[in-house]
Amino acid sequence: MRFLSFLTIAVLIASVMAPAAHAAEPILIRFSHVTSENSPKGQGAVMFKRLAEERLAGKVKVEIYPNSQKFDDNQAPLGLLFGDIEMAAPSLSKFRAYSKKMQVFDLPLLFSDIDALHRFQQSRAGKALLDSMITRGIKGLTYWDNGPRVISAKRAIKQPADAKRLVFRIEASAVFQEQYARVGAVGIEMPFKRLPDAMKEGLISAQENAWSNIRSMQVHKFHNHFTELGHSYLGYMVITSAAFWNGLPADVRTQLEAILKEVTDKVNSLAAEQALSARQEVLQSGAKLVELSEADRRAWRDALTPVWKRFENEIGSDLISAARASN
Ligand code: LMR
Question: What is the atom index within ligand 1 of the atom nearest the CA of 91?
């Protein structure tokens, strides 16, 4: 009898508990970005969703909003803070309103190649930048690659003087404004999704972007000369709201961090592959690559490196030195 009543109570407790366990909604992570699903970043978001939903089945649900469907990059950090999304991955060039130090990534000709950029990102100073927006409520989780920015126009840009009076579509970066002002051109900040119309309407006469974005936005339909100056790299910071991330159950947060680490390696190799395949496709379409001599490169170096000095106070000379030390 006593055993029966114990069983009854156990069953009663279980029946009360079970629906509660079932009713617990998975944690929703809305990941917003501005490129296509096939881009390195788009594929990174898809991998993150697949792994998170597999390994944290029932605990986490990820919704992806590509192609600026939900937010432009300049709105994404606010979207995180207002709780409209939980993750985004804006270009490193779009954070100046949140941390002036982030402008170090935009300084022209600072990193000798992408390996140097990676060394900096993995250094103490580079990792500290992930937390440089924490007082504004934004937490950086990891860096993702796209690739070197390539300049395009309707005419060949070989020497800095060739860029004179051209109007460049640029990302929201004060460094890029200064960079083009120094060669007598104009930089107009514009959201990524506006690029095709801006070229079609003749609002801009030049632009700079990674090969995969040049391919997806069909830049080569409007510009047929491409200059690989290697002046900067388009990369991303995967960001979240610090309040959201800190509020996650510890086991979920740890697993998501491990997943992001795995995805980062895959995104970076995909980015390297796409930089080559998109370049090949664009050049096969008839676009021309501008050949740069050593003298041309020197002329660009002379024209652009004074930009570093102009931003030294905002970025900090120690951070610029740390970045240079990775070369
Ligand atoms: C751009 O605005 O050109 C890029 O930052 C877009 C992107 O996210 O790759």
Answer: 5
Give the whole-angstrom CA distance, residue 234 versus residue 149. 6
Domain of 59, CATH number, reads: 3.40.190.170
The answer for 202, left when phi > 0, alpha when psi is -120 to 50, beta otherwise, is left
Q: Distance between terminal CA atoms of the chain?
A: 79
How many structural domains are present in the chain?
A: 1
Residue-wise pLDDT tens digits, 110-166: 999 999 999 999 999 999 999 999 999 999 999 999 999 999 999 999 999 999 999
Render pLDDT for 193-242 as a digit per residue (tens, 0 to 9). 999 999 999 999 999 999 999 999 999 999 999 999 999 999 999 999 99
Pocket probe for ligand 1: among 72, 91, 217, 238, the residue whose CB has the most ligand atoms within 8 Å is 91
The residue whose CA has the least distance to atom 2 of ligand 1 is 192
Find the 211 Cα to ligand 1 centroid distance in Å: 11
Task: Give, using CA atoms, the residue closest to atom 3 of ligand 1.
Answer: 192
Protein residues whose CB sits closer than 6 Å to any atom of ligand 1: 34-35, 91, 146, 171, 192, 209, 213, 234
Spatial distance between the Cα atoms of 59 and 57, rounded to a whole number of angstroms? 5
pTM of the model: 0.92
Q: Domain residues for 206?
A: 2-325
